[in-house]
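Moderator note: this is an archived Q&A kept for reference. The question asked for a predicted structure of one protein chain; the sequence and the answer are reproduced below.
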Amino acid sequence: MLTPETVDYLRRQTYDPAAEQLSIIVPVSTLYWSDEMPDTKALRRLGNGAYDEVIRLLSIRRQIWEHLQVSNEEQEFWSSAISLAPDFPGFRRLDLSPEDREAQFQIDRLEAEFFDELAESADDFEIDVAGNWSATFHLEEKPGKSFWKRLIPGWFRRLN
């Protein structure tokens, strides 16, 4: 189920109890740690969907954290990854501390703000029941705020 590139990547990662906690919002809002995905650019360069497969694992783990029902397909993918790369650090973090839960809550809040501002700033914005979204911006000059200020006004300041 996983590509050889992904399996090799997962096997090369080493658990570090002092790993830095990081976060992503798109394509899935979740915490992750620097020992799980230390170099996203290098991971993307692996090709064959390795980045997407690692993100899929993080997404499944997020469902586990939230005690949500994991589909049979996702459970098979998760189980396959564990059997092929059992020492991947992400498999050691299946429970969140209260501090981690608060950090995840803040990420969820930022995600909601991001999409609210994106929807408000876009010329056209669509989201479906599966969470797939599309935003269109017409890049011609508009009076007032610049494109980037219309896109995410003040959002980056909230991250600092």
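Archived answer notes: The beta strands are 21-24, 30-33, 124-127, 133-136.
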